[in-house]
């Protein structure tokens, strides 16, 4: 065995933490957090899709496709619950529920093709906001 063999093996080794159930569940949740097409809630229909003045966006364009947030299961507290489980499984540490969110760690356990959904979900659910390049978790009901 040469010194190069372990290095080559490491290149192709998959992080086993990515297959933990809470991490897989978070990625599935992120995939299903949005539905196809523009929002069809009564407010959006009455305003013919104009979202000016909304505290949180209802419709988004991801990869050139319009999608809408599924309100029934994407409240900030719902997102936080799934995120906390995945965070604990992946990092072996509790997620601090108010304050700075380490987006690099979050992206590490999100499938690459789903990473573009993170910011819209965090913002639209009210779970987090971006301030001067930092993501800050917001207090949720029941915290």
Description:
Helix 2 runs antiparallel to helix 4. The chain is globular and about 50 Å long. It has 143 residues and is of the alpha+beta class. The chain has one domain. The strands form two sheets. The protein has a three-stranded antiparallel β-sheet with strand order 1-3-2. Strands 4-6-5 form a three-stranded antiparallel β-sheet. Helix content is 39%, strand content 16%.
Report the principal-axis shape.
Answer: globular
Radius of gyration over C-alpha positions, nearest whole angstrom:
18 Å
Question: First CA to last CA: what distance?
Answer: 53 Å
Q: Give the % helix.
A: 25-40%
Number of domains: 1
The proportion of strand residues reads: 15-25%
Main sheet specs: 3 strands, antiparallel
State the order of secondary-structure elements, H for helix, E for strand.
Answer: HHEHEEHEHHEE
Number of strands: 6
Q: Residue-averaged pLDDT, rounded?
A: 88
Notable characteristics:
143 residues, alpha+beta, 3-stranded antiparallel sheet
């Amino acid at each position: 065995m040469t010194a190069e063999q372990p290095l080559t093996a490491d290149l192709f080794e998959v992080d086993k933490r990515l297959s933990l159930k809470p991490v897989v569940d978070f990625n599935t949740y992120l995939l299903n957090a949005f539905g196809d097409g523009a929002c069809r809630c009564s407010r959006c229909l009455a305003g013919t899709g104009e979202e000016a003045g909304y505290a949180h966006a209802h419709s988004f364009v991801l990869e050139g496709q319009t999608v809408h947030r599924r309100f029934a299961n994407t409240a900030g507290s719902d997102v936080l619950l799934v995120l906390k489980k995945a965070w604990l499984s992946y990092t072996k540490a509790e997620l601090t529920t108010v304050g700075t969110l380490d987006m690099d760690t979050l992206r590490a356990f999100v499938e690459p093709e789903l990473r573009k959904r993170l910011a819209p979900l965090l913002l639209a659910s009210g779970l987090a906001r971006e301030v001067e390049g930092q993501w800050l978790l917001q207090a949720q009901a029941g915290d």
